[in-house]
Design a protein that fits this description.
Blueprint lengths: L17 H22 L2 E5 L2 E13 L10 E3 H13 L5 E11 L1 H12 L5 E9 L3 H7 L2 E4 L4 E4 L12 H20 L5 H8 L11 E4 H6 L5 E2 L2 H19 L4 H7 L1
Length: 260
């Protein structure tokens, strides 16, 4: 008989007890709906694997609250989710879905660093767009995918509002841009020189500096690992989870005897 806790996303199953199983499935479904409503995320279970799906949508909200009509991802909501996924023994991996226009640079980098520092299997999938600070978030996962119809915009750091026109401001901008460039190049297969060239391109965007990469172009440039859909990302994550489980699987007495 296999039993698991029936609270906070962990559910109880008893072999040969259909009524109990049905009740637990209903509770699981109810818990999923609550997750989606409250945080835009969901924890799913299939083929013996438990995966947390995290969505990064709209504009990434940082230290300042954006207008109510904006679709936003609040980084103070996402940070504890990432920590919970890493620490929860019941969760095997993280799937991150991105459709974002970018947003707060420091908030986006904070989330990207957290994902990059996870030990558990992580896969990202860019749908629609992964623009601006969404680029570091996409490459932060151990394996990244992009839909063929999706795109990614690469451009230098900008700032709105009152800015002091002094040399130190320009130096600060450059240092911030270097932080983004270094993170992206360390977590993908694009070179620093090529990424900088794409960011500083003045021939493509009418009212801005930068480049727009369609799905196939992002893969060709080495920014994203593969073209793919949701099923491709899930298959990849399942394989990564299986490899991790095999690594952690305790050695049998027979294997230990052979090694001895």
């Amino acid at each position: 008989m296999k039993k698991e806790s029936a609270k906070k996303g962990q559910y109880q199953y008893s072999e040969g007890n259909d009524d109990q199983n049905q009740e637990n499935e209903q509770e699981f479904s109810s818990e999923q709906q609550k997750q989606i409503t409250e945080s835009g995320s969901v924890t799913t279970r299939n083929n013996g694997h438990t995966v947390h799906c995290l969505t990064i949508i709209g504009q990434i909200e940082g230290h300042y609250i954006l207008p109510s009509q904006n679709k936003t991802t609040k980084y103070e909501h996402v940070i504890p989710q990432i920590v919970a996924v890493e620490e929860d023994p019941q969760i095997d991996g993280l799937l991150m879905l991105l459709n974002t226009v970018g947003g707060d640079v420091e908030a986006g980098l904070a989330l990207a660093e957290l994902v990059a520092g996870m030990k558990k299997p992580t896969v990202s999938l860019v749908l629609g767009g992964g623009h601006s600070i969404g680029v570091p978030l996409a490459v932060a996962a151990k394996r990244s995918f992009i839909a063929e119809s999706a795109s990614m915009t690469i451009h230098p750091v900008r700032m709105n509002g009152l800015v002091l026109g002094i040399p130190q401001t320009l130096e600060y901008f450059q240092r911030m841009q270097d932080r983004i460039t270094n993170f992206v190049t360390q977590n993908s297969n694009i070179t620093k020189e090529r990424f900088t060239t794409l960011a500083m391109n003045t021939q493509e965007l009418v009212m801005d500096v930068g480049s727009v990469l369609d799905g196939p172009d992002a893969v060709e440039e080495g920014l994203i690992d593969s073209l793919g859909s949701l099923s491709d990302a899930m298959d990849c994550l399942d394989r990564m989870i299986e490899r991790e489980k095999k690594k952690k699987k305790p050695k049998t007495a027979q294997t230990k005897k052979k090694e001895g």
